[in-house]
Design brief:
By secondary structure, the chain is an alpha+beta fold. Helix content is 32%, strand content 19%.
Length: 568
């Protein structure tokens, strides 16, 4: 029997734990701490809960997780350590990594058995890279779909899916859900599935003004929020934390927060947890951390409210900020979608790997396998671009590919391309030469690049960048495309292009912490009473990106561990 939806308790001036930020890291900390009997206040500075987590795919990288074990995928504890060491090019790991590998499966088991959050497995999804000639799967889990109606009035506070990658505000999950949408005009079963989803969504819009079919990161946030409310976590939106309060011994004992234009001083007897989502929109810290041409015109796909609040407050009381990571950000290709006076940043995570789509530099040449991970794709673009210039490239498709897969914000058939062309987002050429002239790309170079790619595509082998050969490349393509699921010739005009610029899904550099999530000073001493999780905490992978889900996996694991430590 479903539990009755709780009434939010009045705001007190004292709690055991205060969590600042409502993404996966913050919510998981709040849920675990409340489960252990602590009184918890969760503060979110906007009206929308979920931060970047709500816009994410909802994937967690957790080696040796319970779902993989139940499916018969067993690996020695040393295997993920070997992979991480290979990725980081080191023989010794940060103690936090061993803590992550130990506690990750425990964390998944806790949320799966004790809360409203359910998971689906990613057992078929390989890591980004190979070790010893192969890439393992079974290390990923994702939030299962969640019915937002269970949240009552709180469903309106879950940050909706990013508008430009949803369908009229309805999220589309990876895997079978997305395949049905891509095949809706090709198969009757898929058309019926999509019709059912859209009908439910239309009814939701009429009844609630938003979708209640929560998938991906929306499902993760919705289920965690339901769990927090069931455990009487006090959730406060529109609450901007301005200051960390310390006692005479330097211990953090609370926060000053502005709620409805009123300043409140609220104490935390156990500690304060910073989970504000890193600094993807803090231009000052970007100037300090983003090196070389990664710092030119950065356009993050994270919510614009993520302005480095937690990191800045921690630094103001003496926290060590890591600035020596391999990459300061989780790089992602984005395109700029016109939206009145501002632009929305569209993250290109899916269509790059599909048959009939390639990426070229301003000189008209390819520079990497388009089916590589978003982070690797951008690293290749940075490396291929002059150090003193703004990196950018063009994502190209022929008519057949655009109608099948779409190209960024421009949707596939049956959506017309004319609107996207009128806005200037989608550039169209009757021929490759015509498109090259409109892009300012050398005509001869582009036609030669496409001719070579087409020859390779017809035999199923990319002689330049071996696209489609690695397990990750392979699974990103179209299983119906043979002999290589990622390769198809660009032959059918007209041709289309979208401009790709540097962006990120979040930041890696952050506050130095120990294996419990406690914040450290430059001399490695602990700032008592202060914790950091999620992207406020410096990446345990040192700025490397070994697989999808390496942000949310550690965020929720260290939220779980921080709560355990607070309860002790």
């Amino acid at each position: 029997m479903a539990r009755k939806f709780p009434i939010t308790t009045p705001l007190s001036n004292q709690y055991d734990v205060i969590v600042v930020g409502s993404g996966g890291g913050g919510l998981s900390t709040a849920v675990r701490a409340a489960h252990l009997g602590l009184s918890v206040l969760l503060l979110e500075k906007t009206d929308a809960l979920g931060g970047t987590s709500a816009w994410s795919g909802g994937w967690l990288w957790i080696p040796r997780n319970p779902l993989a074990i139940r499916a018969g995928i067993h690996e020695d504890a040393e295997e993920p350590r070997r992979y991480i060491c290979s990725e980081m090019q080191t023989d010794s790991l940060d103690p936090r990594l061993d803590a992550f590998l130990e506690s990750g499966p425990e964390m998944v088991d806790f949320f799966e058995t004790q809360t409203a959050l359910n998971f689906v497995d990613g057992n078929a999804i390989p890591d980004f890279h190979e070790l010893d000639g192969h890439a393992l799967g079974g290390r990923s889990v994702a939030a299962a779909p969640f019915d937002g109606r269970q949240l009552g009035k709180w469903k309106h506070h879950v940050r909706p899916p990013l508008s430009v990658i949803s369908l009229w505000g309805m999220g589309i999950a990876s895997g079978a859900d997305m395949r049905h949408f891509f095949n809706a005009t090709r198969r009757l079963s898929s058309m019926m599935y999509v019709t059912k989803r859209l009908t439910r969504h239309a009814l939701d819009l009429v009844r609630f003004g938003r979708s209640t079919q929560l998938v991906n990161g929306n499902a993760l946030v919705g289920a965690l929020l339901k769990s927090a409310l069931d455990l009487n976590v006090r959730v406060q939106t529109n609450a901007s934390v301005s200051t960390l309060i310390k006692d005479d011994q330097g211990r953090v004992t609370g926060v000053e927060v502005i709620i409805n234009d009123q300043l409140h001083s609220i104490s935390a007897s156990k500690g304060v947890v910073m989970a504000t989502g890193g600094f993807p929109h803090d231009t000052k810290r970007q100037a300090e951390q983003f090196k070389g041409n990664t710092g030119f015109g950065h356009y993050s796909a994270a919510p614009k409210s993520n302005t480095g609040d937690g990191i800045n407050m921690a630094e103001s009381i003496g926290a060590k900020i890591c600035d020596d990571l391999a990459n300061a950000g989780a790089w992602s290709p984005v395109s700029l979608v016109p939206n009145g006076k501002e632009q929305i940043h569209f993250p290109h995570l899916i269509e790059r790997a599909k048959p009939g789509i390639i990426a070229v530099l301003p000189n008209g040449k390819r520079f990497t396998s388009e089916a590589n991970s978003y982070h690797d794709f951008m690293r290749a673009l940075f490396d291929a671009s002059p150090a003193d210039s703004q990196p950018y490239c063009w994502l190209l498709a022929d008519h057949k590919a655009q109608r099948r897969w779409g190209l960024g914000w421009s949707k596939p058939f049956p959506f017309p391309t004319s609107y996207f062309e009128r806005t200037g987002y989608l550039i169209k050429g009757k021929s490759l030469a015509d498109l090259a002239l409109k892009l300012g790309v050398p005509v001869d170079a582009l036609t030669e690049t496409v001719a070579r790619f087409n020859c390779d595509a017809k035999i199923g082998f990319d002689s330049e960048f071996q696209r489609g050969e690695s397990p990750y490349n392979h699974i990103q393509g179209d299983p119906e495309q043979t002999p290589n699921p990622s390769l198809a010739a660009l032959e059918q005009g007209p041709f289309y292009a979208v401009k790709i610029v540097p962006g990120s899904l979040g930041t890696f550099s952050g506050v130095k912490t120990n294996e419990h999530g406690q914040v450290l000073r430059p001399d490695q001493s602990v700032i008592l009473g202060l914790y950091a999780v999620g992207n406020d905490m410096s990446s345990i992978f040192g700025g490397h990106y070994p697989s999808g889900g390496i942000t949310l996996g550690p965020a929720m694991t260290f939220g779980y561990r921080a709560a355990n430590h607070l309860a002790e």
